[in-house]
Amino acid sequence: xxxxxxxxxxxxxxxxxxxxxxxxxxxxxxxxxxxxxxxxxxxxxxxxxxxxxxxxxxxxxxxxxxxxxxxxxxxxxxxxxxxxxxxxxxxxxxxxxxxxxxxxxxxxxxxxxxxxxxxxxxxxxxxxxxxxxxxxxxxxxxxxxxxxxxxxxxxxxxxxxxxxxxxxxxxxxxxxxxxxxxxxxxxxxxxxxxxxxxxxxxxxxxxxxxxxxxxxxxxxxxxxxxxxxxxxxxxxxxxxxxxxxxxxxxxxxxxxxxxxxxxxxxxxxxxxxxxxxxxxxxxxxxxxxxxxxxxxxxxxxxxxxxxxxxxxxxxxxxxxxxxxxxxxxxxxxxxxxxxxxxxxxxxxxxxxxxxxxxxxxxxxxxxxxxxxxxxxxxxxxxxxxxxxxxxxxxxxxxxxxxxxxxxxxxxxxxxxx
Amino acid sequence: xxxxxxxxxxxxxxxxxxxxxxxxxxxxxxxxxxxxxxxxxxxxxxxxxxxxxxxxxxxxxxxxxxxxxxxxxxxxxxxxxxxxxxxxxxxxxxxxxxxxxxxxxxxxxxxxxxxxxxxxxxxxxxxxxxxxxxxxxxxxxxx
Lengths: 417, 143
Known about the structure:
The complex is a heterodimer. Chain A is 72% helix and 0% strand. Chain A is mostly helical. Among the domains of chain A are: 4-101; 361-417, no CATH class. In chain A, α17 packs antiparallel against α18 (363-375) and α18 packs antiparallel against α19. Chain A is elongated and about 90 Å long. Chain B is globular and about 45 Å long. The relative contact order of chain B is 0.17. Chain B has helices at 11-16, 19-38, 87-100, 122-125; strands spanning 45-48, 55-58, 63-66, 105-108, 111-115. Chain B is α+β, with helices and mostly antiparallel strands. Chain B contains four helices and five strands. The mean pLDDT of chain B is 86. In chain B, the strands form two sheets. A three-stranded antiparallel beta sheet of chain B has the order 3-2-4, covered by helices on one side. A two-stranded antiparallel ribbon of chain B has the order 1-5. The A-B interface holds A 6, 9-10, 12-14, 56, 213, 217, 220-221, 223-224, 227-228, 233, 236, 270, 273-274, 277-278, 280-281, 283-284 and B 10, 12-13, 15-18, 49-53, 55, 64-67, 86-88, 110, 112-113.
């Protein structure tokens, strides 16, 4: 008798590869999903009775495919396929199947499945739910809860997204090298979007916070398929290192705790170790990309035993590299924070002033500028920035954090008065 | 007799465990470890990081590839534990060994968890000549 939890874990971990292979057979998302569902139902019954197959993924693909073909045959009154209770114990049936599904085939299948979910025709609000539904296998209910919308509305959003990608006609031929690289880039970006959905969730919003774990799972899947891609190592390392701070990021009241005030003993060492090991590996390739540089920045934070020990000049240099690779006012804003530590608040302020127009509606710009002005003793201007930041804050945690600065300012002026 | 017990499992599944699931398994394992460690029989135990963190040096061509050693023809013959500053130094160690013993490969895999366990009997610790009654003799039933 095998454990129910084991079966569920096996089904979850097999899902992306199984659905991806079935999609290649049926060339239709709904048909692939239905076949996979059917295979899972049979697995629940069969595996608890007969024990688990040697390769659960290959079993699910084969049984899912047979079940769908069987259905077709039944409707056309042809002979049925053999029952899957025979299949799972027959090594000679299973082995060639597993061998035929060699790594490169798997890789293109899974990449195609993931790429369909982040098709350029889809807005981000549809990409992430579709990926979570199709690739991760989360239920519509779970996804709806994560995005704080009703189940019916989410169902509709996913159905609409599916219809759009079905019409977009993603080719099923083996992709060329350039195409593969382009697909990988989109899929990495989508994975990081999923991560940020989870990362930006407040502590009470567990359903959404779980998306960070889900994104890390997708990142691991990508790295298993693209073992020698330093940017994939960088992406996974970045997510692991950011996520390692999770237990320290909110206080008991659920308010955000700044990195400088976090209790570093709460950081998850296991995730840090893995992130650092991946960066170490990626550095050997001497080919840097935006994810790897961001991971390296997160690593400098992770390596500092105390906030005072942070290597700010190292972080400044890495942000300078990131500015070249991926110029954006947000990157410059982040760099300014490092500059304020090495050269003081005035130098940082000079650096971000030219960004005022482009970041006029960016919460963090006003929060950071307020902080710098405060350090310079320009309290009235600081207060204006903080007020502006509060008006722009997207989450309760963001607003609460700025409010803390304002409260401190008010308390100080009252003390003086 | 010293044995190495090598742990195998479906990596995708184990990596997919939630923090709670992982901690539950580790707690159950710790309980099992305790009995054997108290009896002085459990020596160091190690949990490795996922294979995605591995790097492999193929000795003959001095070729460094990302990922674990995936060939099935060769068997695992032994392993070292080293304390180095980074992967580059680890590879330097592996290359030194490769000079002495060409053929095959070394997979370098970061260690996630190291538990020292009970101390190892000195008699095992050196590659020694037969040491008479100092060496732990195998116990054979008289029957």
